Amino acid sequence: MKYRQLGKTDMKVSELSFGTWAIGGAWGTTSDEEALKGLHRAMDAGVNFFDTADVYGDGHSEELLAKATKGKESDIYIATKFCRAGDIHDPNTYSEKAVTEYCEASLKRLERDQLDLFQIHCPPIEILKDGHVFEVLDKLQQQGKIRNYGVSVETVEEGLLCLENPNVSTLQVIFNIFRQKPITELFPKAKVKGVGILARVPLASGLLTGKFTSNHQFESDDHRQFNQNGEAFNVGETFAGLAFNKGVELSNQLKWIAEDRGSMTRASLKWILEHDAISSVIPGFKTVKQVEDNLAAVDVKNFSNEEMERLEDFYKQEVHDNIRGPY
Protein backbone atom coordinates (compact mmCIF):
# COMPACT_ATOMS: atom_id res chain seq x y z
CA MET A 1 0.00 0.00 0.00
CA LYS A 2 1.19 3.50 -0.84
CA TYR A 3 0.40 6.52 1.31
CA ARG A 4 -0.30 10.13 0.42
CA GLN A 5 -0.33 13.34 2.40
CA LEU A 6 -3.86 14.32 3.40
CA GLY A 7 -3.80 18.02 2.64
CA LYS A 8 -2.55 20.27 5.41
CA THR A 9 -3.23 17.67 8.11
CA ASP A 10 -0.43 15.74 9.82
CA MET A 11 -1.80 12.49 8.39
CA LYS A 12 -0.51 10.28 5.61
CA VAL A 13 -3.32 8.04 4.46
CA SER A 14 -3.53 4.94 2.32
CA GLU A 15 -4.15 6.02 -1.27
CA LEU A 16 -6.93 3.46 -1.41
CA SER A 17 -9.15 3.67 1.63
CA PHE A 18 -12.79 2.83 2.25
CA GLY A 19 -16.11 4.53 2.78
CA THR A 20 -18.67 2.91 5.06
CA TRP A 21 -22.04 4.11 3.79
CA ALA A 22 -22.83 0.70 2.32
CA ILE A 23 -22.17 -1.26 5.52
CA GLY A 24 -24.22 1.24 7.52
CA GLY A 25 -27.35 1.03 5.42
CA ALA A 26 -29.31 2.24 2.35
CA TRP A 27 -27.47 -0.14 0.01
CA GLY A 28 -29.66 -3.19 0.37
CA THR A 29 -29.00 -6.24 2.54
CA THR A 30 -25.86 -6.13 4.67
CA SER A 31 -24.15 -8.40 7.19
CA ASP A 32 -22.31 -6.97 10.18
CA GLU A 33 -20.15 -10.08 10.37
CA GLU A 34 -19.11 -9.69 6.73
CA ALA A 35 -18.61 -5.94 7.18
CA LEU A 36 -16.25 -6.47 10.12
CA LYS A 37 -14.31 -9.10 8.17
CA GLY A 38 -14.02 -6.61 5.31
CA LEU A 39 -12.73 -3.87 7.61
CA HIS A 40 -10.13 -6.22 9.09
CA ARG A 41 -9.07 -7.40 5.63
CA ALA A 42 -8.56 -3.79 4.57
CA MET A 43 -6.48 -2.96 7.64
CA ASP A 44 -4.38 -6.10 7.17
CA ALA A 45 -3.58 -4.81 3.66
CA GLY A 46 -2.34 -1.50 5.04
CA VAL A 47 -5.48 0.64 4.82
CA ASN A 48 -5.27 3.22 7.60
CA PHE A 49 -8.18 5.54 6.77
CA PHE A 50 -11.95 5.09 6.77
CA ASP A 51 -14.73 7.54 6.01
CA THR A 52 -18.12 7.44 7.70
CA ALA A 53 -21.00 9.68 8.78
CA ASP A 54 -23.45 9.92 11.65
CA VAL A 55 -26.36 9.18 9.29
CA TYR A 56 -24.93 5.98 7.81
CA GLY A 57 -27.33 3.53 9.40
CA ASP A 58 -28.12 6.13 12.09
CA GLY A 59 -24.61 5.76 13.46
CA HIS A 60 -24.27 2.04 12.80
CA SER A 61 -21.24 2.35 10.55
CA GLU A 62 -19.47 4.40 13.25
CA GLU A 63 -20.19 1.63 15.76
CA LEU A 64 -18.82 -1.00 13.38
CA LEU A 65 -15.64 1.04 12.94
CA ALA A 66 -15.28 1.27 16.73
CA LYS A 67 -15.38 -2.51 16.97
CA ALA A 68 -12.99 -3.07 14.07
CA THR A 69 -10.38 -0.53 15.20
CA LYS A 70 -10.41 -1.32 18.92
CA GLY A 71 -6.82 -1.12 20.16
CA LYS A 72 -5.68 0.46 16.88
CA GLU A 73 -6.97 3.96 17.51
CA SER A 74 -3.55 5.57 17.10
CA ASP A 75 -2.86 3.74 13.82
CA ILE A 76 -6.21 3.97 12.02
CA TYR A 77 -7.61 7.36 11.06
CA ILE A 78 -11.38 7.88 10.91
CA ALA A 79 -13.21 10.71 9.20
CA THR A 80 -16.86 11.27 10.00
CA LYS A 81 -19.46 13.80 8.91
CA PHE A 82 -22.33 15.77 10.40
CA CYS A 83 -25.40 17.95 9.73
CA ARG A 84 -27.68 15.63 7.76
CA ALA A 85 -29.23 14.21 10.93
CA GLY A 86 -30.90 17.63 11.19
CA ASP A 87 -32.47 20.12 8.81
CA ILE A 88 -29.54 21.01 6.55
CA HIS A 89 -31.20 24.31 5.57
CA ASP A 90 -31.72 25.51 9.16
CA PRO A 91 -28.83 27.66 10.46
CA ASN A 92 -29.44 26.21 13.94
CA THR A 93 -28.17 22.86 12.65
CA TYR A 94 -24.75 24.52 12.44
CA SER A 95 -24.83 26.32 15.79
CA GLU A 96 -22.09 25.70 18.33
CA LYS A 97 -24.52 23.74 20.51
CA ALA A 98 -25.75 21.50 17.69
CA VAL A 99 -22.35 20.82 16.11
CA THR A 100 -20.83 20.07 19.52
CA GLU A 101 -23.63 17.55 20.14
CA TYR A 102 -23.06 15.93 16.74
CA CYS A 103 -19.34 15.73 17.48
CA GLU A 104 -19.77 14.23 20.95
CA ALA A 105 -22.31 11.70 19.69
CA SER A 106 -19.89 10.53 16.99
CA LEU A 107 -17.04 10.36 19.52
CA LYS A 108 -19.19 8.16 21.75
CA ARG A 109 -20.17 5.79 18.92
CA LEU A 110 -16.58 5.63 17.64
CA GLU A 111 -15.27 5.18 21.22
CA ARG A 112 -12.61 7.82 20.67
CA ASP A 113 -11.43 10.93 22.51
CA GLN A 114 -10.81 12.96 19.36
CA LEU A 115 -12.01 12.92 15.76
CA ASP A 116 -9.23 12.79 13.17
CA LEU A 117 -11.34 14.57 10.56
CA PHE A 118 -14.78 16.13 11.04
CA GLN A 119 -16.57 17.04 7.81
CA ILE A 120 -19.66 19.07 7.05
CA HIS A 121 -21.89 16.67 5.13
CA CYS A 122 -22.95 18.30 1.85
CA PRO A 123 -24.45 21.50 3.28
CA PRO A 124 -26.33 24.04 1.14
CA ILE A 125 -24.11 26.68 -0.42
CA GLU A 126 -25.85 29.37 1.67
CA ILE A 127 -24.41 27.81 4.83
CA LEU A 128 -20.93 27.83 3.33
CA LYS A 129 -21.30 31.45 2.24
CA ASP A 130 -22.44 32.45 5.74
CA GLY A 131 -19.31 30.82 7.17
CA HIS A 132 -20.40 30.69 10.83
CA VAL A 133 -20.04 26.91 10.91
CA PHE A 134 -16.30 27.26 10.26
CA GLU A 135 -15.95 29.39 13.40
CA VAL A 136 -17.71 26.63 15.34
CA LEU A 137 -15.31 24.04 13.93
CA ASP A 138 -12.35 26.25 14.84
CA LYS A 139 -13.56 26.19 18.46
CA LEU A 140 -13.93 22.41 18.47
CA GLN A 141 -10.40 22.15 17.12
CA GLN A 142 -9.09 24.47 19.83
CA GLN A 143 -10.89 22.37 22.44
CA GLY A 144 -9.16 19.24 21.13
CA LYS A 145 -12.36 17.45 20.16
CA ILE A 146 -11.29 17.36 16.49
CA ARG A 147 -7.86 17.33 14.89
CA ASN A 148 -8.87 18.62 11.46
CA TYR A 149 -11.99 19.57 9.56
CA GLY A 150 -13.18 19.51 5.97
CA VAL A 151 -16.26 19.62 3.80
CA SER A 152 -18.02 17.07 1.61
CA VAL A 153 -19.46 19.00 -1.34
CA GLU A 154 -21.80 18.36 -4.26
CA THR A 155 -20.48 20.95 -6.71
CA VAL A 156 -17.25 22.50 -7.91
CA GLU A 157 -18.61 25.93 -6.95
CA GLU A 158 -19.07 24.78 -3.35
CA GLY A 159 -15.56 23.34 -3.32
CA LEU A 160 -14.01 26.56 -4.58
CA LEU A 161 -15.89 28.49 -1.89
CA CYS A 162 -14.53 26.19 0.83
CA LEU A 163 -10.98 26.77 -0.41
CA GLU A 164 -11.33 30.40 0.65
CA ASN A 165 -11.33 29.28 4.30
CA PRO A 166 -7.71 28.84 5.44
CA ASN A 167 -8.53 26.16 8.02
CA VAL A 168 -10.35 23.74 5.71
CA SER A 169 -7.95 20.79 5.40
CA THR A 170 -9.88 18.52 3.04
CA LEU A 171 -12.59 18.41 0.42
CA GLN A 172 -14.59 15.32 -0.36
CA VAL A 173 -15.89 15.37 -3.93
CA ILE A 174 -17.69 13.06 -6.35
CA PHE A 175 -14.97 12.09 -8.79
CA ASN A 176 -14.84 9.24 -11.28
CA ILE A 177 -14.59 8.61 -15.03
CA PHE A 178 -18.18 9.88 -15.36
CA ARG A 179 -17.55 12.99 -13.21
CA GLN A 180 -14.37 14.72 -14.42
CA LYS A 181 -15.33 18.37 -13.92
CA PRO A 182 -13.15 18.93 -10.78
CA ILE A 183 -9.96 18.34 -12.79
CA THR A 184 -10.00 21.69 -14.57
CA GLU A 185 -10.19 24.27 -11.79
CA LEU A 186 -10.87 22.71 -8.39
CA PHE A 187 -7.93 20.30 -8.24
CA PRO A 188 -5.22 22.83 -9.20
CA LYS A 189 -6.51 25.37 -6.68
CA ALA A 190 -6.78 22.74 -3.94
CA LYS A 191 -3.15 21.77 -4.54
CA VAL A 192 -2.03 25.39 -4.23
CA LYS A 193 -3.99 25.75 -0.98
CA GLY A 194 -2.67 22.47 0.41
CA VAL A 195 -6.16 20.97 0.67
CA GLY A 196 -6.49 17.20 0.40
CA ILE A 197 -9.02 15.64 -1.95
CA LEU A 198 -11.03 12.55 -1.02
CA ALA A 199 -12.67 10.96 -4.08
CA ARG A 200 -16.12 9.62 -3.24
CA VAL A 201 -18.65 7.74 -5.39
CA PRO A 202 -15.58 6.48 -7.32
CA LEU A 203 -17.48 3.65 -9.02
CA ALA A 204 -20.61 5.69 -9.77
CA SER A 205 -22.71 3.58 -7.38
CA GLY A 206 -21.49 0.41 -9.09
CA LEU A 207 -21.95 1.46 -12.72
CA LEU A 208 -18.19 1.50 -13.24
CA THR A 209 -17.87 -2.10 -12.13
CA GLY A 210 -19.55 -3.07 -15.41
CA LYS A 211 -21.74 -5.63 -13.63
CA PHE A 212 -25.19 -4.15 -14.27
CA THR A 213 -27.63 -4.69 -17.11
CA SER A 214 -30.51 -2.35 -17.86
CA ASN A 215 -33.08 -4.71 -16.31
CA HIS A 216 -31.30 -4.97 -12.95
CA GLN A 217 -33.61 -4.58 -9.94
CA PHE A 218 -32.30 -3.05 -6.71
CA GLU A 219 -33.78 -3.74 -3.28
CA SER A 220 -36.38 -1.26 -2.03
CA ASP A 221 -34.11 -0.02 0.79
CA ASP A 222 -31.20 0.61 -1.60
CA HIS A 223 -30.74 4.27 -2.55
CA ARG A 224 -30.03 3.08 -6.09
CA GLN A 225 -33.74 2.23 -6.15
CA PHE A 226 -35.34 5.00 -4.09
CA ASN A 227 -33.09 7.89 -5.17
CA GLN A 228 -32.60 7.17 -8.87
CA ASN A 229 -34.00 10.58 -9.78
CA GLY A 230 -33.02 12.51 -6.65
CA GLU A 231 -36.24 11.76 -4.74
CA ALA A 232 -34.49 11.51 -1.34
CA PHE A 233 -31.30 13.59 -1.71
CA ASN A 234 -29.02 15.04 -4.36
CA VAL A 235 -29.36 13.10 -7.61
CA GLY A 236 -25.57 13.19 -8.10
CA GLU A 237 -25.08 10.82 -5.17
CA THR A 238 -26.72 8.01 -7.14
CA PHE A 239 -25.05 6.77 -10.33
CA ALA A 240 -23.05 10.05 -10.36
CA GLY A 241 -26.16 11.83 -11.61
CA LEU A 242 -26.75 9.64 -14.67
CA ALA A 243 -30.07 7.98 -15.40
CA PHE A 244 -29.52 4.28 -14.71
CA ASN A 245 -30.12 2.96 -18.22
CA LYS A 246 -27.91 5.66 -19.72
CA GLY A 247 -25.24 4.82 -17.18
CA VAL A 248 -25.34 1.15 -18.12
CA GLU A 249 -25.04 2.08 -21.79
CA LEU A 250 -22.05 4.32 -21.09
CA SER A 251 -20.34 1.78 -18.85
CA ASN A 252 -20.59 -0.78 -21.63
CA GLN A 253 -18.57 1.58 -23.81
CA LEU A 254 -15.80 1.48 -21.20
CA LYS A 255 -15.19 -2.27 -21.12
CA TRP A 256 -11.82 -1.68 -22.78
CA ILE A 257 -10.30 -0.11 -19.65
CA ALA A 258 -10.28 -3.56 -17.97
CA GLU A 259 -7.83 -4.98 -20.51
CA ASP A 260 -4.67 -6.05 -18.63
CA ARG A 261 -6.13 -4.56 -15.43
CA GLY A 262 -8.24 -7.46 -14.17
CA SER A 263 -11.61 -5.71 -13.95
CA MET A 264 -13.42 -2.46 -14.63
CA THR A 265 -13.53 -1.86 -10.88
CA ARG A 266 -9.75 -1.91 -10.56
CA ALA A 267 -9.28 0.14 -13.71
CA SER A 268 -11.79 2.78 -12.61
CA LEU A 269 -10.12 3.20 -9.23
CA LYS A 270 -6.67 3.28 -10.81
CA TRP A 271 -7.80 6.07 -13.15
CA ILE A 272 -8.66 8.19 -10.11
CA LEU A 273 -5.27 7.52 -8.53
CA GLU A 274 -3.56 8.79 -11.68
CA HIS A 275 -4.47 12.32 -10.53
CA ASP A 276 -1.92 13.67 -8.09
CA ALA A 277 -4.43 16.04 -6.45
CA ILE A 278 -6.12 12.97 -4.95
CA SER A 279 -5.14 12.11 -1.39
CA SER A 280 -7.27 8.98 -1.26
CA VAL A 281 -10.05 7.23 -3.12
CA ILE A 282 -12.78 5.82 -0.87
CA PRO A 283 -14.91 3.11 -2.51
CA GLY A 284 -17.59 1.44 -0.46
CA PHE A 285 -18.00 -2.28 0.14
CA LYS A 286 -20.33 -4.86 1.62
CA THR A 287 -18.23 -8.03 1.28
CA VAL A 288 -14.65 -9.17 1.75
CA LYS A 289 -14.52 -9.99 -1.95
CA GLN A 290 -15.33 -6.38 -2.82
CA VAL A 291 -12.62 -5.17 -0.46
CA GLU A 292 -10.08 -7.43 -2.14
CA ASP A 293 -11.10 -6.37 -5.64
CA ASN A 294 -10.78 -2.71 -4.69
CA LEU A 295 -7.41 -3.25 -3.01
CA ALA A 296 -6.03 -4.79 -6.18
CA ALA A 297 -6.48 -1.45 -7.98
CA VAL A 298 -3.28 -0.02 -6.53
CA ASP A 299 -1.12 -2.55 -8.37
CA VAL A 300 -2.70 -2.60 -11.83
CA LYS A 301 -1.18 -1.09 -14.96
CA ASN A 302 -1.08 2.69 -15.24
CA PHE A 303 -3.06 4.46 -17.95
CA SER A 304 -1.07 5.78 -20.90
CA ASN A 305 -1.36 9.42 -21.97
CA GLU A 306 -3.37 8.27 -24.98
CA GLU A 307 -5.81 6.34 -22.76
CA MET A 308 -6.23 9.32 -20.44
CA GLU A 309 -6.99 11.56 -23.41
CA ARG A 310 -9.45 9.01 -24.75
CA LEU A 311 -11.32 8.98 -21.43
CA GLU A 312 -11.32 12.77 -21.27
CA ASP A 313 -12.85 12.95 -24.75
CA PHE A 314 -15.37 10.26 -23.80
CA TYR A 315 -16.49 12.34 -20.81
CA LYS A 316 -16.82 15.54 -22.84
CA GLN A 317 -18.58 14.00 -25.81
CA GLU A 318 -20.70 11.22 -24.31
CA VAL A 319 -21.17 11.82 -20.59
CA HIS A 320 -21.14 15.50 -19.63
CA ASP A 321 -24.51 16.49 -21.08
CA ASN A 322 -26.25 13.49 -19.50
CA ILE A 323 -25.40 14.33 -15.88
CA ARG A 324 -28.39 15.64 -13.96
CA GLY A 325 -28.35 18.17 -11.14
CA PRO A 326 -25.75 20.84 -10.31
CA TYR A 327 -22.20 19.61 -10.08
From TrEMBL:
<dbReference type="InterPro" id="IPR020471">
    <property type="entry name" value="AKR"/>
</dbReference>
<feature type="domain" description="NADP-dependent oxidoreductase">
    <location>
        <begin position="15"/>
        <end position="315"/>
    </location>
</feature>
<dbReference type="InterPro" id="IPR053135">
    <property type="entry name" value="AKR2_Oxidoreductase"/>
</dbReference>
<dbReference type="InterPro" id="IPR023210">
    <property type="entry name" value="NADP_OxRdtase_dom"/>
</dbReference>
<protein>
    <submittedName>
        <fullName>Aldo/keto reductase</fullName>
        <ecNumber>1.1.1.-</ecNumber>
    </submittedName>
</protein>
<keyword id="KW-0560">Oxidoreductase</keyword>
<dbReference type="InterPro" id="IPR036812">
    <property type="entry name" value="NAD(P)_OxRdtase_dom_sf"/>
</dbReference>
<dbReference type="Pfam" id="PF00248">
    <property type="entry name" value="Aldo_ket_red"/>
</dbReference>
<dbReference type="GO" id="GO:0016491">
    <property type="term" value="F:oxidoreductase activity"/>
</dbReference>
